[in-house]
Amino acid sequence: MLNIESIRCWLVDIPTIRPHKLSMATMGCQTLTIIEMVCNGGISGWGEATTIGGLSYGPESPEGIRSAIETYLAPLICGKTFSGVEALSRTMNASVKGNTFAKSALETAFLDAQGKVLGVPVSTLLGGALSQRLPVLWTLASGNTQQDIDEGKRLLAEGRHNTFKLKIGAGQLQDDVRHAIAIKQALGEQVSVRVDVNQAWDMTAAVKGIRELQAGGIDLIEQPLPLWNHRDLIALSQRFDVPMLADESVATLQDSYALASGGFTGAWALKIAKAGGPAQVLKLAHVAQGAGISLYGGTMLEGSLGTVASLHAWSTIGLQWGTEMFGPLLLKDDILTSPLVFTDGGVTLPEGPGLGVEIDRDKLNHYSRQ
Ligand code: MUC
Ligand code: MG
């Protein structure tokens, strides 16, 4: 039983190491919505809600997330006692529709506090870690083919990553296809290269583009169509040998059921923000397991807190396509006292109660909006 006493929110702006170009936005900075949930006994749980490019990626902005928490969610749950995350999510869902990013930050903070009280890691609360290390790919998205090739070769030589995702969809179809195949050829046969179209194509463009990308050796095609188009995404997954990865199309438990029961084959990018938290996202994973759909640990390009929360969830399930939990590496600085350790194509799950990390309050204040 945990009583939530108070919740505080910060908007934290951290510059990226280079512009990160997606089909809908180019990021030079990432805004993290960070929350501290103080519970009985003075235990603090921490959570993060992060999106990409303001309102260009999803329906919640950093400012909107903060407002949803401060105006609606915090008054709803502060002063109440919860037995666990199920009771917490039922209370939030009964009075607040949607707003899964905001709810994810709160569920994360609750799990962190509960883990600290019980003296166990968040992964234990979620079913128990199967592994303390998870694979992590890197996204090449400078917007320039040669720069992406150089960056990929450098990371391969350093041994930090051995798998890459490319962001396409902003350019002309043929230019995007040429860009992806040039990078695949430069990085070599042994290196897995995937693309994320972020909803930029219609069905005609998708059929043409995917045919060429498949012939060029691309391993996985992420979200080629608009998120609402489940019918054609299912058709693409059945038409091509190269698998489709559903991302924006599979946010809620209801999306997961619709895709699975509609005959989708391929993989899903799980994200704690889309589903409403590290416990909620595992419900989608179980639908996938029942339907024979593969899994992938996805990021909203969160900072370290959101990344660690996701890693605790991913550590409890099998991920056939690994993870993309590199968010902290895209940012110039961190708000943790000790950064996550990324080596040899993977990241290590921190040990210790709760999330297993500590906030550097000076850094938090330094990067916070006043
Ligand atoms: C997305 O759509 O997958 C994940 C990695 C990356 O570079 O962008 C995100 C968003
Ligand atoms: Mg994606």
TrEMBL record:
Q: Which GO terms describe its biological process?
A: amino acid catabolic process; peptide metabolic process
Q: Name one GO molecular function term.
A: muconate cycloisomerase activity
Record-linked InterPro entries? Chloromuconate_cycloisomerase, Enolase-like_C_sf, Enolase-like_N, Enolase_C-like, Mandel_Rmase/mucon_lact_enz_CS, Mandelate_racemase_C, Mandelate_racemase_N_dom
Q: Hey, which pathway is this one from? A: Aromatic compound metabolism
User: What is annotated as the active site?
Assistant: K167 (proton acceptor), E324 (proton donor)
Spell out the Pfam families in the cross-references. Answer: MR_MLE_C, MR_MLE_N
Q: Which SMART domains does this one have? A: MR_MLE
In the UniProt record, does the keyword Repeat occur?
no
| Key word Isomerase present | yes
Requisite cofactors: Mn(2+)
Provide the alphabetized UniProt keywords.
Aromatic hydrocarbons catabolism, Isomerase, Manganese, Metal-binding
The text of the family note is: Belongs to the mandelate racemase/muconate lactonizing enzyme family.
What's this protein's name? Muconate cycloisomerase I
Query: Which species does this protein come from?
Result: Shimwellia blattae (strain ATCC 29907 / DSM 4481 / JCM 1650 / NBRC 105725 / CDC 9005-74)
